[in-house]
């Protein structure tokens, strides 16, 4: 990986556990509703149209770099566009329960009908957005591409909406696992193609989000989630972009997540980053893991929280500072700036 193409390459160096002068910081959902500049664009367009309009998607991707001072940008998109590209109808109504599929998958015939061939090509608007974002960033900071993990995307495709009790997908998992494996296998192929195409379009790192991995028992997590993440990481790493795997509520399987071949393991805030470092820090970098709701407190309290995470990780390299999940929409912008400033001001002491 040639880091010299970015003026600020702290994030890329940290992904590879190379020496850094301070800990880089970015956060999940950083292009979003907490920013008035984002809300101004959203006032004129709906969510999916924004995802599918490359120059607008690029604009909101770059906003946090200019306005908040983060060390990496992440392309503005949604994990569920993959399911749409495979042939499902996707509706996103913000504030009305989020994304939904009016015709959720309920049979093997419906799974068999989903397209794999050409699905990644249907996501050309994401690749265009990446190209535009790279141009706008002008090599200031690296650009991250992403995709959902097969288990997480399948949860929405089968439940039809934001899963609550995972009743339908778990019923399928326990009663007819071969059908679920058929779906997960198809998703893996499309996601691997999609991530590869993102790297070709300019993504300099990749993140795989397994938001719902934590609803599975450890054996099921291994069989129905990690197995497919491993396949995707193997395919995605051919492009030489570092790969981050983030599984929410999966503290029980950190070692197994680290063994997927990922360069970086993302941690939620329930996991002690110091213990995670002892476990896997010798061969992967760690990303995280401040509780996003601390950003509703005060700058002074946020500083204490930041320092606590830095101290738990300890001295040395291989840490990317992030929240333990996505930033919440109502978060005060000044507190987000205080968070980024606290990481920048306090972390240099841990890299002497």
Summarize the helices and strands and which ones pair or pack:
Layout: H1 10-15, H2 36-42, H3 47-51, H4 54-67, E1 73-74, H5 81-85, E2 91-93, E3 98-100, H6 108-113, H7 124-137, E4 143-148, H8 150-159, H9 167-175, H10 177-200, E5 205-210, H11 218-236, E6 243-247, H12 254-258, E7 264-266, H13 273-280, E8 285-290, H14 299-313, E9 319-323, H15 333-347
Parallel strand pairs: 1-4, 4-5, 5-6, 6-7, 7-8, 8-9
Antiparallel strand pairs: 2-3
Question: What would you note in describing this structure?
Answer:
The protein has 352 residues and is α/β, with parallel strands linked by helices. The chain has one domain (35-284): TIM Barrel. Helices cover 46% and strands 11% of the residues. It has a seven-stranded parallel β-sheet. α11 links the parallel β5 and β6 (243-247). α8 (150-159) crosses α10 (177-200) and α13 packs parallel to α14 (299-313). The longest helix is centred in the middle third of the chain and has 24 residues, at 177-200. The model has no long low-confidence stretch (mean pLDDT 96).
């Amino acid at each position: 990986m040639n880091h010299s193409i970015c003026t600020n390459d702290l994030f890329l160096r940290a992904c590879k556990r190379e020496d850094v002068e301070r800990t880089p910081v970015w956060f999940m959902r950083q292009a979003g509703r907490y920013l008035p500049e984002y809300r101004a664009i959203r006032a004129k367009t709906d969510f999916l149209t924004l995802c599918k309009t490359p120059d607008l998607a690029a604009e909101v991707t770059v906003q946090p770099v200019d306005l908040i001072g983060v060390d990496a940008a992440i392309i503005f998109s949604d994990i569920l566009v993959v399911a749409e590209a495979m042939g499902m109808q996707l509706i996103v109504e913000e504030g009305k329960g989020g994304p939904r599929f009016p015709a959720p998958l309920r049979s093997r015939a419906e799974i068999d009908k989903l397209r794999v061939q050409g699905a990644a090509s249907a996501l050309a608007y994401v690749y265009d957005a990446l190209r535009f974002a790279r141009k706008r960033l002008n090599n200031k900071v690296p650009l991250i591409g992403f995709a959902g993990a097969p288990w997480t995307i399948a949860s929405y495709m089968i439940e039809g909406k934001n899963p609550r009790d995972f009743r339908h997908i778990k019923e399928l998992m326990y009663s007819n696992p071969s059908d679920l494996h058929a779906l997960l296998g198809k998703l893996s192929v499309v996601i691997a193609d999609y991530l590869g195409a993102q790297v070709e379009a300019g993504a300099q790192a990749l993140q795989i989000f397994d938001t719902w991995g934590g609803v599975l028992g450890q054996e099921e997590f291994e069989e129905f989630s990690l197995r497919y993440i491993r396949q995707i990481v193997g395919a995605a790493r051919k492009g030489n972009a570092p790969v981050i795997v983030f599984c929410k509520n999966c503290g029980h399987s950190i070692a197994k997540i680290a063994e997927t071949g990922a360069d970086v393991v993302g941690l939620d805030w329930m996991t002690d980053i110091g213990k995670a470092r002892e476990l896997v820090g010798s061969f992967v970098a760690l990303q995280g893991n401040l509780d996003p709701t601390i950003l509703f407190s005060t700058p002074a309290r946020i500083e204490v929280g930041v320092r606590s995470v830095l101290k738990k990780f300890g001295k040395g390299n291989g840490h990317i500072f992030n929240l333990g999940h996505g930033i919440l929409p109502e978060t005060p912008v000044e507190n987000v700036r205080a968070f980024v400033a606290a990481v920048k001001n306090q972390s240099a002491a841990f890299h002497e």
